[in-house]
Amino acid sequence: MSMYTGLSGIKAANTDLATTSHNIANASTTGFKNSRTEFGDLVDSNASLSAGMGVKTQAINQLFQQGGVITTGNALDLAITGNGFFKVQGTAEGAPALYTRAGSFHIDAEGRIVNNLGQQLQGTEGPLQFEADSLPLSNITVNDDGTITATGSDGATVSPEGGAIGLVDFPNPQGLKKISDTQWAETVDSGAPTDIAAPPGNIGTIMSGALEASNVDLTEQLVNMIIAQRNFQANAKTITTNNTLTETVINIR
User: Fold this and answer.
1) Which terminus of the chain faces fewer neighbouring Cβ atoms within 10 Å, N or C?
2) How far apart are CA 212 and CA 148, in angstroms?
3) pLDDT digit string (tens) for 27-61?
4) Gap between the Cα atoms of 1 and 19, Å rounded
């Protein structure tokens, strides 16, 4: 049994190493939130007479602490400070609504404000989109209240349909379903999102010309990697020791 206990420890340490490595790999990913592996012990049905059966991975949770803010100078690069998420949605019919803090947006050929995946940013009144005949735009400005103005191709000041840029929040963000490293979907555990609220609101604030950096602390992750590696080695040693003891018992004459 002790050999299987050690094996469970190796599996857990390997999961911890993989999670930490993934965090380090995404230290420069805009809007990335680092993850933490949560462990629990395996308990025998007769726990009072058992030393335990090892360890299991219970969950890999993302931590939504604020990341740093990087200035870019691009008006449609949007950083969230405080709580909240941007709501984005694919342009195909039936595409699900997703939520992100990666605020790198641009205007596509049809005037839609989209991210690098082509998902459209949702405003307080619907999808944000400029009239196609106003393209190309210049002097794009995101105002403090979330409204957007720009100079159209004819020199007139224009704004997109869909209202202002805003944020949503959830009763329990930890309950969101991870879709990718920087996007999440609503679940029963997260609760329903609030209505999209333009700043200033009760959620967070939006900074134009900046992006929220990854919240990965490289020093912390490197320490975690050392600890996970030592746990791996220690559990491997318990298996080696158990094997030695088993061979000794077998060889008793």
Assistant:
1) C
2) 20
3) 999 999 999 999 877 655 555 545 567 888 888 88
4) 27
Helix axes 2-25, 218-250, angle to 10 degrees: 160
Q: Is the pLDDT of residue 180 over 70?
A: yes
Q: What is the rounded distance in angstroms from the CA atom of residue 202 to the CA atom of residue 215?
A: 22
Q: Which residues contact 127 (CB under 8 A, 6 or more apart)?
A: 89, 112, 120, 121, 161, 162
Do 173 and 186 contact (CB within 8 A), yes or no?
no
Question: Both tokens of residue 174?
Answer: 């930890």
Read off the pLDDT of each residue in 114-136 and give the average, rounded to a whole number: 95
Q: Where are the domains of the chain?
A: 2-65+215-250, 69-212
Cα dihedral angle (211, 215, 218, 222), rounded to 10 degrees?
Answer: -150
